[in-house]
Write a structure and sequence with these properties.
Helix content is 0%, strand content 52%. The chain has 82 residues and is mainly β.
């Protein structure tokens, strides 16, 4: 597995309620996120990272799947020793 940093735009959930059209300009925009992890799986539409891996087994924890349409950049992090 390779270690990477993925820069991607995440959605923002706004507070529940009614808005006027002029209120829209005051709402937060998308958030840029940096996710670090081991690439577990990659398809044409998404990439899945894991944060924890039990060495010598197939068990892992804290996975995140990111749609490729939201990804701005993927950077390899060299020299991973495990």
């Amino acid at each position: 597995m390779k270690l990477v940093r993925i820069d991607w735009e995440d959605t923002i959930e706004h507070q529940t309620g009614w808005y006027e059209q002029e209120d829209i300009k005051e709402l937060e925009d998308v958030a840029l996120v940096h996710s670090y992890g081991l690439v577990l799986k990659e398809t044409e539409v998404s990439i899945t990272l894991i944060a924890d891996l039990i060495v010598g087994s197939k068990e892992f924890g804290r996975s995140t799947t990111i749609p490729k349409g939201m990804i701005e950049e993927i950077r390899d992090i060299p020299n991973l020793d495990y």
